Amino acid sequence: MFKAPRGTVDLLPQEQRYWRYAEQAAAGVCRRFGYQRLDTPTFEASGLFVRGVGEQTDIVQKEMYAFEDRGGDLVTLRPEGTAPACRAYLEHGMSSLPQPVRLYYFCPIFRYERPQAGRYREHHQFGVEAIGDGDPAIDAEVIQLGWSYARELGLGKLSLVVNSIGDPACRPGYLQALKEYYGAYLPHLCQDCRGRYERNPLRLLDCKQERCQPFIASAPRSSDYLCDACKEHWRRLLAYLDLLSIPYTTSHRLVRGLDYYTRTVFEIQPPDEGGQSTLLGGGRYDGLVQELGGPPTPGIGFGSGFERMVLNLKRQEVRVPEVLPRPVVIVHSGPQALEYGLGIAARLRKESLTVIVAPAQRSLRAQMRYASSVNARYAVVVGETEVRQRTGSVRDMDNASQEEAPEADLAAYLVAKVGLEQAG
């Protein structure tokens, strides 16, 4: 028997309400902030991610689903959303639009890594990008959008963590200080960190291995090595967050995992903070568009995995509405009643009611049990009498009361009933 591939999950009907709830909240917040939807292909040229994300990152080194297609081109299933958004910005001449260009997207993300709670080899992401403005006010806007999204979902006890990792002018000095500091501890580091020491020393601060934690705590801090321009950007960003009354903490160990980040990086974390618990994370990437062949263009964005959001909605027992309202079920007795009931169902659906016709070849009692099993709010019972009189018996499934209504009035009657309940 076939099963879903390791690291993937089936999104079953009973799970859909959580996903649609998160997606609708994200789209609503983006609309209020003036962000427009972008959809990019599921796969791109592999070079886009090698150049954009960074050849020495774990994503490129270990996690990409890259393959040669039948035409001989090397392509990669999308491992992150920012590089494709910047490629689309360049390809379609969005630099001629009013800047910044504000974009958001929902997309599947593919990374070959060890599956664990909230992290899969195929996961689904909500992302936001603001491309074309380097002012820290845009940093604050993007962070505020992410914070508003998480709070609108009903999640509580969240933490916003921010840091500045400098830019190409001042980061080399900081990286040299990190290497000098860690050089004395190389024999004591985990195997991954010994590799990071040579390839990407900034990632030493992001290690989750227990043996490396004492060295991280005493490591040099990026904020002590910022150039004057980065210091001013950092100062203004924190002032804007204070102005917006968004609580935050600063952490020198927050670096994020992609080479394109500059200056601002941030994460929103749930109460059970841990290595894989981040709900939303991102930062500024002022050199990415240029790295992809465009002119110098600042940008900032974030990504948020739906799987982790859903996991935390359940953990915090957030009340999430059903995707479908409770249905009306047509219960029928005999072939003529079934035909009559099918006509009633068609008219009710035209009024935007959710209607299910109970399975044929079952007794009335079995059909009523079926109506209960699908959580019907009302059942419209039709038999020989109802067919002859052109009526329907509307049964309230919550209190077992029943009323007769003429066929011509059934739709208005039920629309009024359902509408009154939804309003309440």
Short characterization:
The protein is 39% helix and 20% strand. It has 424 residues and is an alpha+beta fold.
Keywords:
424 residues; alpha+beta; BirA Bifunctional Protein, domain 2; Rossmann fold; 2 domains; eight-stranded mixed beta sheet; 39% helix; elongated
Question: Can you describe this structure?
Answer:
The protein is an alpha+beta fold. It folds into two domains: 13-170 and 226-315, 2-Layer Sandwich (BirA Bifunctional Protein, domain 2); 328-417, Rossmann fold, CATH 3.40.50.800. The protein contains 15 helices and 16 strands. The protein has helices at 16-33, 46-53, 58-63, 82-91, 136-152, 171-183, 191-199, 213-217, 228-243, 288-291, 306-315, 335-350, 364-373, 384-389, 407-423; strands spanning 36-37, 43-45, 66-68, 74-77, 101-110, 122-131, 159-164, 249-250, 262-269, 280-284, 299-305, 328-332, 355-357, 378-382, 391-396, 402-406. The strands form three sheets. An eight-stranded mixed beta sheet has the order 1-5-6-11-10-9-7-8, sandwiched between helices. Strand 3 and strand 4 (74-77) form a beta hairpin. Helix 1 (16-33) packs antiparallel against helix 5 (136-152), helix 1 crosses helix 11 (306-315) and helix 5 packs parallel to helix 9. The longest helix is centred in the N-terminal third of the chain and has 18 residues, at 16-33. The mean pLDDT is 91.
